[in-house]
Amino acid sequence: MSMEVKKIVSGAGSASPDDLRKVFHHVDVYELARQEAVEALQQALQKAVEAGELPAEAAPAYAVEIPADAAHGDLAANLALVSAKTFKMPPRKIAEALKTHFPSGSVFEKVEVAGPGFINLFLSGAWYASVLMAACSCGEEYGKTDGGNGKKINVEFVSANPTGPMHLGNARGAALGDCLAEALSMAGYEVTREFYINDAGNQVVKFGKSLAARYMQIMHGEEAVPFPEDGYQGEDITRRAREFYELHGEAYADKSEEEREQALVEYALPKNIEGLRHDLEKYRVLYDVWFPESKLHEAGEVMRVVEELRERGAAYEKEGTIWYRAEEEDGKDEVLVRANGIPTYFAADIAYHADKFARGFDRAIDIWGADHHGHVARMKGAMKALGLDESRLDIVLMQFVRLVRDGQQVKMSKRTGKAITLTDLLDEVPIDSARFFFNQREPGSTIEFDLDLAVSQDSENPVYYVQYAHARICSLLRTLEEEQVVFDPQAAFANAGLLADEKERALIRQVAAFPGEVRSAAEGYDPARITRYLIEVATVFHRFYTACRIKGEEPKLQQARLALCMAAKTVLANGLNLLKVTVPQRM
């Protein structure tokens, strides 16, 4: 624990709110304790060596971690176990020597040797008090840390093809990418959320031909005008063609195919892109950058990158086609520029990722569907071939979504009879449920999305369960206020030592864990850590609230328990806000 924190804690309730906010600003109290444990163990090791109880050998790397069972301490170290071979001593004997020389005056009130030689460390009441001070004083800022050091991170996600509506995979990708970006921001990174607009290439050509066919069919009938075999069949294509017809009538019927297709694309594509933006904003996803692929083509960046790959020997020409030379294991050469001179999507994608590096991002993170796994090594290989550091590009592969109703898989929308889109989903389930459910499993796991559970309003629904815990605390505070009992931070912190019941301490440990969970979610690209954490906080809070009386309790203990309720309320609110899920005051 830092000297500033120790000074504040030792002063109990004497510190002002401003002092508390300054001291605990972006502080992870659990991490401070872990660092102090490492320092104390190093001191104990040195003292044991000086006393001749341990050999003067460098100890191997070891871990100080939070044990799964609180009976094994607040933190546990395996230093003795990993040192046994180096020290040529039984691990338990090493552990006993370390315990003997463990420095006094630390934040740990007790040290135990357990099992074959684990060192279990139990934190003091002062540390538990510091957790409440940190959470209650920092409020909305609690959980944020500075570990990212302001490094610039680009998170690109969804990037759905604008020629059609977003599907369920996009719905999961949007929730995952947005929440990951928020976790990274809270962990101290400067984050840019980006949507890559595929507004060029073959898919846009196909889009134009599909629109043009539907436009001509309005005038001449479906039998008279053939539809492209590989055209886009969606109702959205027909709707856009009819909108265009209502604006222009038959004015484009006698134009050339190229002119007709171009006019339809210029009309429909911006509307589709705006539709994507609208649907994502409804889903609470706001982007910092919408980056059009066409920008790269217009600036000549795609062909410039292709030429650079040729100069570096990473691309070659064969029979008028330019190929990427795959150096990756099991990689296959891939077309960059077709014989007709038109670059492929792969070439544009290489140029796009090179552009991210040129914009000065320390790291670029892409959220891709699992069906793109074969593209990962090629893209990283292309970055390396361009002389860039491919380790700065991370790809998060996201598995598929399985919709379930009444225990049966659902594939089609009730309304349209077509594949379910993001819009269909949000018409049926609350946005809170969608965002929470899509982040309940790590990206690499398939999600089974239970539509019945998502709309239920009981404790079986995990998001409802978490929201109810927050609303329950708000209700308690309103009831106490009606009885003229208000939260007094100074009195609460001065009496935090009264919180000795294991259910109280279990909840404090959960509150303390929040900054670390946010950091782990950011560094592991796994926002599911936050949903699991919130469910556990709600569970531990309900246990505490059932067992530990607050209304009518003796004033000092009442204030201490109120501080614990306020701290729990803070982490529930901040965790839900990270997920962009509603934080209800009443339910």
Plain-language structure description:
- There is one protein chain.
- The chain has helices at 3-10, 17-24, 29-50, 79-87, 91-100, 125-138, 168-186, 202-220, 235-248, 257-282, 293-298, 301-311, 345-358, 373-385, 422-428, 431-437, 451-455, 462-482, 489-494, 502-523, 528-547, 555-578, and strands at 64-65, 75-77, 108-114, 118-123, 152-156, 190-197, 289-292, 315-318, 321-324, 334-337, 363-369, 393-398, 401-405, 408-410, 447-450.
- The protein has 587 residues and is an alpha/beta fold.
- The chain has a five-stranded parallel sheet with strand order 7-6-5-11-12, sandwiched between helices.
- Strand 8 (315-318) and strand 9 (321-324) form a beta hairpin.
- The protein is globular and about 90 Å long.
Question: Summarize this, please?
Answer:
The chain has 587 residues and is an alpha/beta fold.
Q: What is the radius of gyration?
A: 30 Å
Number of helices: 22
Mean pLDDT across all residues, rounded? Answer: 94
Structural class: alpha/beta
- Which segments are poorly predicted (pLDDT under 50) over 5 or more consecutive residues? none
